[in-house]
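Give me the fold.
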Amino acid sequence: MSMYLAIRDDIVFAAGYKTLAEGLKDLNIPGIELFVKKDDTVSAIAPVDGKERLNIADPADVAELARQAAENGVKIAALCMGNNFNAEDKEFEIAWAVRAVRAAQALGAPAVRVDAIMSGERDLPLEERLRLVADAIKKILAATEDSGVELGIENHGFQGNDPVFVKATLEAVGNPRLGLTLDSGNYYWRGWPLSRVYEIFEELAPFVKHTHIKNIKYPQDIVETQREVGYEYDKYCCPIHEGDIDHTRYFAALRKAGYDRDLCLEDESLGKYDIEQRKDNLRKAAEFFKAQIAG
């Protein structure tokens, strides 16, 4: 098995496609990441009778989603969650994640993306943040021990883009089913100099279970400086093939680590362009990564 191209469902819709099946076919991308809302629903791949969302907690809906994927030649690369492990109702967050893991198992998706962002993360000491995240993830993994599905915690937000926190979380959980959804743009967003971003890719590549891929183009004089978190991101986020991050280095780090799953496009600059340019930008990014995979 080798790496393959995927894309986030929200990005397909942001590019102007009416359905995921339409967008994946037009962009010639085989894989999709589906975002799970708190009501347990995900976007249908090819809606039937106007039913645009399917419930992952409903076996009939899961079967229908699997049918749509198979009929349209789509691989479900991962399910994606925007969880909060410091929410007031922590048991809901855990049960919700367990349902997502079970759905991923039924759909043949190897991973579920979980979020590092949580309420109060900037106010709590590192030890308390680690305890909250590790305790929740341990419970999710224990409840789904027989699933074979892995969790990829994303380097997202303030604490998620701190390599110390990420490594400490992996160590605290101590289960090989926990790894990372390594977002190629987020460490750069966090303010790390570009050379440090490449070092982080190499350090963390062995733990990757799933990916997100985006890019940023900063003025040349601040590329190697330590910037404030999220510095003018809306202004400088850009098409994947145009930014400062050399994705050949990201790809090489993954390949060296033996990673063999998705390369999931998440171009957050689409809103700057008209519909046709959005599609063109995604096609160019897709062609770039297909060439990397083929090479």
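The radius of gyration is 18 Å.
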